[in-house]
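User: I'm writing a short report section on ligand binding and want a predicted complex to refer to. Could you take this sequence and hypoxanthine and write out the structure as tokens? A short remark afterwards would be nice.
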Amino acid sequence: MIQKIKETAEYLKSRMPALPRVVIVLGTGLGGLVDDLKIELEIPYKEIPNFPISTVKGHKGSLIFGKLNNVDVVVQNGRFHFYEGYDLKIVTFPMRVFKAMGINIVLLSNAAGSVNPEIGCGSLMMITDHINFFCDNPLMGPNYEELGPRFPDMGETYSLRLRNIAKETAAQLCIPLKEGIYLGSRGPTFETPAEYRMFHRLGADAVGMSTVPEAIIAHHGGMETFAISIITDEGFEGKVKKASHEVVLAKAAEAGPKMTKLIYAMLPKI
Ligand code: HPA
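Assistant: Sure. The structure tokens for the complex follow:
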């Protein structure tokens, strides 16, 4: 694995226009961010040695290097999910590569269903902590000390510094920003009403099928991590709305510009 990470990182370093300060991972329907990006180089996954290929409708498959609000970034446009059948080590392979390239800050985005009636559809929710309900962990198996510790502390998986910048920026832009706990589940089924209720009672505010594995690996590697959800559906106790991939895509597209604006404005401050 170490060999593959190094090989892929070397390949990308040999092609990248500049070392990105930040990697941004785009979730479902959040591709709008790319419109604001001054693109310098786009590399399809199929050209990148050792990279997996994503299989979901609405998910793209390329790394885009460029400037966003004058900050060098790389955008992972299309991520890999456990429900596609990938091992969590494959799902998180790109994150290992970003770290090996020398990138130390990651912004993750996703679409999620809310289980907290105070966080309605269309809200932006900054992730303050997570519950790993994948019943798996990308760190299973031998640990390579050069990548991070065997037993990583998870007390501040989501950087307080970046969260404070997000709060301050959202206030300046008058963008309402909720905060909450994201529960990562395997999918690909949306939750039953009983599952939404259970997740809320377990302490979650929102549930989705990504982000947790990547956040674990980023944190394990010592990267500063920030994550934000667009709430695309509601699983409130007694009032579960029917969820579908189409609804998720439509709602994410609707609320996406708010998230894009926030990330754009945050970048020069980080
Ligand atoms: N559950 C799981 N994943 C999701 C949801 C949901 O309600 N909405 C968007 N991704």
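A remark for your report: The chain has a mean pLDDT of 94. Residues 85 and 91 are 9 Å apart (CA to CA).
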